[in-house]
Design brief:
The complex is a heterodimer of chains A (about 130) and B (about 180). By secondary structure, chain A is α/β, with parallel strands linked by helices. Chain A has helices spanning about 5-20, 45, 60-70, 90-95, 100-105, and strands at about 25-30, 50-55, 75-80, 115. Chain A has one domain (about 5-115): Thiamin diphosphate (ThDP)-binding fold, Pyr/PP domains (Rossmann fold), CATH 3.40.50. The chains are: A alpha/beta (about 130), B mainly alpha (about 180).
Chain lengths: ~130, ~180
């Protein structure tokens, strides 16, 4: 059986899916430069130049953009650099992404992926470092 | 504009030069507290330069003025010049909620806005002065609007409450796309 790291598996899956489906894009902090903070998106900015979107340090807006894009028919993969920071975006996660389908009586759906890396190493404490 | 997402969204729109128009319908109150007590900046327009985009403040009761400001912003958006922040200064005619006792606003202030600055009446007067609307047409539009609202209220009141089972529907979408 082939053995790969989580990082390479994620990178490979993103490459395959983005090649297959043009509505998929990645959005998050530092996801293009040097292939992302944890190199999960390595090589992707070159392969998909318009679809790897680097953002300011604005977690709520990152998830908000993903929710809006998903509602409008895109398939966003939003990344929060460290899971600790998702709390900055809890309104978008809980009140928007999670409830939208119910609130619209099933008329709207929010097909998005939210990546929240954690467990990077033993040195990442309560607030990521 | 007191919440972080306002600033995050404008900053993103600015750096990406998005064709977005950010409209702040400023009714000058939180639930019960005036803006002046909770925001040092008087005009929301003045927040726009912080993000490198133009800001406009317009009389939100003046339909024609709002239209002109909006047209300029739409032109900017269409020609790749990026976002614009527009503050429409307006007023909340009623309470924040049903049962609002109105103890926090001066009665004369409310009466002034409601009686002197109703945007529908101001537009009607504007059009009639220019002979673009007759009193009969104005009355017909108003009665049609009232009829539409009454019909909507009647429909809502006549509609049944959702069945108990609906509390667990439309919650998840399975990987196969089927709703649960």
């Amino acid at each position: 059986m082939r053995s790969v790291t989580f990082r390479d598996a994620l990178n490979e899956a993103l490459h395959e899916e983005m090649a297959r489906d043009s509505s998929i894009f990645v959005i998050g902090e530092d996801v293009a430069t040097h292939g992302g903070n944890l190199a999960v998106t390595k090589g992707m900015a070159e392969a998909f130049p318009d679809r790897i979107r680097e953002t300011p340090n604005s977690e709520a807006a990152i998830v908000g953009v993903a929710v809006g894009a998903a509602l409008a028919g895109m398939r966003p993969v939003a990344e929060i650099m460290y899971v600790d920071f998702v709390t900055c975006a809890m309104d978008e996660v809980v009140n928007q992404a999670a409830k939208m389908r119910y609130m619209t009586g099933g008329q709207a759906s929010v097909p998005m992926v939210l990546r929240l890396p954690c467990g990077l190493s033993q040195y990442t404490a309560a607030q990521h470092s | 504009m007191q919440r972080g997402t306002f600033h995050e969204a404008i900053n993103m729109g600015a750096i990406w030069k998005l064709p977005v128009i950010y409209v702040c319908e400023n009714n000058q109150y939180q639930q019960w507290i005036p803006q002046s007590r909770m925001t040092k900046v008087t005009s929301v327009r003045d927040m726009a330069p912080s993000y490198g985009i133009p800001g406009e403040s317009v009389d939100g009761q003046d339909v024609v003025a709002v239209s002109q400001v909006a047209r300029d912003a739409i032109e900017r958006a269409h020609t790749g010049q990026g976002p614009t922040l527009i503050e429409c200064v307006t007023y909340r005619f009623h309470g924040h909620n049903l049962g609002d006792l109105h103890e926090y606003r001066d009665k004369e202030e409310v009466a002034y806005w409601v009686n002197e600055l109703d945007p529908i009446q101001l537009l009607g007067t504007y059009l009639m002065e220019r002979k673009q609307l007759s009193e009969d047409e104005d009355a017909a539009i108003q009665s049609a609007a009232v009829a539409e609202i009454r019909a909507a209220v009647a429909f809502a009141e006549a509609s049944p409450f959702p069945a108990d089972a609906e509390i667990v529907t439309d919650v998840f979408t399975a990987p196969d796309g089927a709703a649960r």
